[in-house]
Design brief:
The protein has about 325 residues and is an alpha+beta fold. It contains 9 helices and 14 strands. The chain has a 5-stranded antiparallel β-sheet with strand order 12-11-10-13-14. It has a 4-stranded antiparallel β-sheet with strand order 6-9-7-8, with no helix packed on it.
């Protein structure tokens, strides 16, 4: 697209990178933070950057910018679900992170299970239910979790407990994801600890344990400084850490992820390795100052700017 020289299909720097951010998903503010961080890092390394706030004119904006590559810093729909990926494929534009098919599958928690469980990846059971059915009866024995089938960042997750404050059955007038989504994924609640592992290229990085100061690791806990303690590397047995990394890398490969991904786990520490379950794979992990991928990379001596460059290089 741009005028940068090519050598054997690889673009020699400095590059012209269009950073695509914002959009209209629930995760817009986080995407803007990620995108600005990426843009400043690339500028600091001498690259030309065009910032693009995602709107309906996106094809025209990308065509006018004529970048060597688009850094996809969008989170949620339509930046993470294959929509933007398909658009850029049609335009013949190179872009970072996973492609169309991978994005379609990974954002849908039920499709992810269908892709991974037959290969031996341990994931919780569960079923997709009509939200209205929750007002008649519980789909699973309590405690269980309900969440949107295809939102990220713990948007709309509710834990329905024995003594649940949602009522029994769930009250129609009670605030919860059932008021905002027609379908929800219901899964058994796995007690225990929240773990996450980033993959960069073909390498699983580290395991981080996330300890929310109160409640559980929801959207606010993820993106509000001080609400969650990150223990990196996690204080867990070696066999659990190795298993997290092995599962994260295998899931990344099976789904066909590119650049970087992040796998989220629950671990029931009374059950050993048998208590470890993959919850989901994020194909567009956050790149904010509180985000987990930059944190794990930094612990391994990869600073933020180098991380961003490596993601771009792999895509080029």
């Amino acid at each position: 697209m741009g005028n940068t020289a090519h050598r054997g299909g690889q673009v020699r720097g400095p590059w012209h990178v269009a950073v695509l951010m914002g959009g209209w998903s629930a995760e817009r503010p986080v995407s803007l933070m990620s995108g600005e961080g990426v843009a400043k890092a690339l500028e600091g390394r001498g690259h030309k950057v065009t910032r693009i706030d995602m709107d309906r004119d996106i094809p025209m904006k990308i065509a006018e910018a004529r970048p060597d590559i688009v850094f996809n810093a969008l989170h949620g729909v339509p930046g993470e679900d294959g929509t933007v990926q398909g658009l850029m494929d049609l335009m013949g534009v190179k872009y970072t992170h996973s492609g169309l098919a991978t994005s379609v599958i990974a954002i849908d928690k039920q499709l992810t299970k269908q892709a991974l469980v037959p290969h031996g990846i341990p994931m919780p059971g569960g079923q997709v239910v009509e939200s209205a059915a929750l007002f008649e009866r519980d789909p699973l024995p309590r405690p269980y979790v309900v969440k949107p089938v295809n939102e990220g960042s713990s948007v709309g997750v509710a834990i329905v407990t024995e003594q649940g404050n949602y009522g029994s059955p769930i009250g129609r007038d009670v605030e919860g994801p059932w008021q905002h989504f027609t379908e929800l994924l219901a899964e058994p609640y796995i007690r225990g600890r929240e773990l996450t592992t980033a993959v960069l290229g073909e390498e699983a990085l580290l395991v981080t344990e996330l300890r929310p100061k109160s409640g559980f690791y929801d959207f606010d806990s993820k993106y509000t400084d001080g609400l969650t303690e990150h223990i990196c590397p996690a204080d867990i047995p070696d066999d659990i850490a190795e298993q997290c990394k092995a599962i994260a890398l295998r899931a990344h490969q099976l789904l066909g992820c590119k650049g970087t991904s992040r796998s989220d786990f629950r671990w029931d520490d009374t059950q050993g390795v048998e208590g470890l379950f993959l919850l989901e794979v994020n194909t567009q992990p956050g790149m904010t100052p509180l985000s987990l991928v930059p944190e794990q990379a930094a612990k391994l001596g990869i600073d933020y700017a180098e991380l961003v460059e490596r993601i771009v290089e792999e895509a080029l």
